[in-house]
Design brief:
Helices cover 16% and strands 24% of the residues. The chain is α+β, with helices and mostly antiparallel strands.
């Protein structure tokens, strides 16, 4: 086990930085110093004590499939009532303005070993999975690569973007006729690429919504990836909370049937 709970101290007002919206489609917000460096370090240690294992990937039908070449990482999962992550869940859900009870078990994921450890383009949800929001917190600083990248996000002009946020988004029309997601390496390694990138800064939280507000569909604009750190000794650690549109412990059979009906009724091109 991971021992006792982690005692969290609310960020002081001098450190707290209000969320900044950096994209409108999908909606993406960044807030620095949501958690202190000490909180982040302790959560990583708790995950290592608990034991990290290779990560499975969630399919569009909500069924987990085994580790793939598209993702090289290790992860530990904490239950919804685990005293270690309970304060984290509460604060992350509050950041999203959504009920903590709708959050899935929280994961702590490490891209350990630096260069080559990445997560190719993917969605966090589908209409069947029904994740309203993702709250991701960086638990380590990475200054050479390691960005969270949304290549086709429609960004929001803002003169006061947080440090380490760059790119205005690639044109979504370039995906017309594309049948397979392009590899991320060329976009990650080119600092001048227009893809939206968010650099890992310890305590930085990123909130994004895969679906439109009515939950009827998602867009390729919400497809994202985790770039590899470019230095061998720079490990990247994150924790993420996926928040559903219903209570996590509720029976999902009827809910999934309803989502399937929406999927068939409201299917529209993802390029829009």
């Amino acid at each position: 086990g991971g021992g006792g709970g982690v005692a969290l101290v609310a960020p002081s007002e001098s450190l707290w930085r209000p969320p900044v919206q950096i994209a409108s489609y999908p909606r993406i917000y960044v807030a620095d110093d949501l958690f202190s460096p000490e909180d982040c370090d302790e959560l990583v240690r708790a995950a290592v004590r608990k034991g990290v294992t290779p990560v499975s990937i969630m399919g569009s039908d909500g069924v987990a499939v085994g580790p793939k070449e598209s993702r090289q990482s290790l992860s530990a999962e904490f239950g919804t009532d685990d005293p270690i992550t309970k304060p984290w869940r509460r604060r992350m859900a509050n950041f999203a303005l959504l009920p903590e009870s709708h959050g899935e078990p929280q994961a702590v994921t490490g891209y350990v070993g630096g260069a080559g450890h990445k997560y190719e383009l993917h969605f966090d949800s589908s209409l069947q999975v029904g994740r309203v929001a993702t709250v991701l917190v960086f638990l380590s600083d990475v200054y050479n690569g390691g960005e969270l990248m949304f290549p086709w996000a429609k960004t929001t002009p803002n003169a006061s973007w947080p440090e380490g946020v760059s790119g205005r988004g690639r044109p979504i029309k370039e995906l017309h006729g594309v049948t397979k997601e392009p590899p991320i390496a060329p976009m990650c390694e080119n600092s001048a690429d227009p893809a939206l990138k968010i650099a890992p800064r310890k305590g930085r939280a990123v909130l994004f919504f895969t679906h439109t507000p009515d939950l009827k569909r998602y867009s390729y604009r919400a497809m994202h990836a985790g770039c590899s750190p470019r230095v061998v000794d720079e490990d990247k650690w994150i924790t993420q909370l996926f928040i559903k549109w219903h209570n996590w412990k509720k029976d999902e059979n009827e809910i999934l049937q309803s989502m399937e009906m929406l999927h068939n009724q409201w299917r529209r091109p993802l390029h829009e």
